[in-house]
């Protein structure tokens, strides 16, 4: 069935933002992906949260970046997980911070790595701890440096070690490590250095480190600091290499002391 306007069926290709604003929410209950794909992008300017709620999840497959860009942020309040799952990853490029802020946290359970990698960095400013806590760990495989740098500190508190260990190694340097407990960081670093010494890849070593740190983690999360470095036993530095040093936040180096520097392999410098 077609999209139903106030006076009956409507041709998707001719719908305007004004038509959308005057349309009953239930009119979208029969929308299909084809209907959405045929609709002009600027028509989405009349979209509301109740209309989004009424739309079948499968219809989201017809959305694209310009349509998302034209959608009022408040309309995102009608999103849910199945709708997120059905949205083409490329459509996420049309998201911004106000749209993310308006989205119910539960909708984030529909995120995947492709969608995450298509999200503009500035959209991360709309994330909070509840939204991050609802995001599947595997979705973090789509994270990248600029995105992690743009994430508000409070949002990090919703992440757990399974999410952190899913972040690509090249984006790790942009993670805010300040609220990881020192004992968790010490356990994680010890496991990381041992794994590297045993021949693991950096990615595998990072996952091993996360598993070792997990028992020391609180219910919420946050970032490597100087205090954490000063709590690390000097012998823990024996497994460091140049790549690891390159990814360490500069401020963390304030916790280094002479015994730790002596224990560090020359090639790590």
Please provide a written account of the structure.
With 269 residues, the protein is mainly α. The chain is 40% helix and 2% strand. The protein has helices at 17-21, 33-38, 49-54, 65-70, 81-86, 97-102, 113-118, 129-134, 145-150, 153-156, 161-164, 182-197, 202-213, 226-231, 242-247, 258-263; strands spanning 3-5, 8-10. The chain has a two-stranded antiparallel ribbon with strand order 1-2. Strand 1 (3-5) and strand 2 form a beta hairpin. Helix 12 (182-197) runs antiparallel to helix 13.
Assess the beta-strand content as a share of residues: under 5%
Give the spatial strand order of the biggest sheet: 1-2
Count of DSSP strands:
2
The low-pLDDT segments are 219-232, 235-239
Class from helix and strand fractions: mainly alpha
Report the C-alpha radius of gyration, rounded.
23 Å
Overall pLDDT metric: 78
Span of the ends, CA to CA: 66 Å
């Amino acid at each position: 069935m077609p999209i139903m306007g106030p006076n009956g069926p409507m041709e998707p290709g001719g719908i305007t933002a004004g038509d959308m604003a005057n349309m009953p929410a239930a009119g979208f209950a029969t929308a299909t992906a084809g209907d959405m794909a045929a609709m002009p992008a600027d028509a989405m300017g009349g979209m509301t949260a109740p209309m989004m709620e009424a739309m079948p999840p499968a219809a989201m497959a017809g959305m694209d970046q310009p349509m998302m860009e034209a959608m009022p942020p408040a309309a995102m309040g009608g999103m849910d997980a199945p709708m997120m799952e059905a949205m083409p990853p490329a459509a996420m490029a049309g998201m911004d911070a106000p749209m993310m802020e308006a989205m119910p946290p539960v909708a984030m359970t529909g995120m995947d790595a492709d969608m995450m990698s298509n999200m503009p960095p500035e959209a991360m400013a709309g994330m909070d701890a509840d939204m991050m806590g609802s995001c599947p760990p595997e979705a973090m495989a789509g994270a990248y440096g600029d995105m992690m740098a743009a994430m508000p500190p409070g949002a990090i508190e919703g992440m757990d070690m399974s999410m952190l260990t899913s972040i690509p190694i090249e984006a790790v340097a942009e993670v805010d490590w300040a609220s990881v407990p020192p004992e968790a960081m010490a356990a994680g670093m010890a496991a990381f250095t041992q794994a590297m010494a045993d021949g693991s890849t950096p990615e595998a070593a990072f996952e091993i480190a996360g598993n070792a740190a997990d028992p020391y983690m609180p219910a919420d999360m946050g970032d490597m600091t100087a205090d954490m470095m000063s709590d690390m036993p000097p012998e823990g530095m024996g497994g460091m290499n140049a790549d690891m040093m390159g990814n360490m936040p500069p401020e963390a180096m304030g916790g280094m002391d002479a015994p730790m520097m002596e224990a560090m392999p020359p090639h790590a410098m």
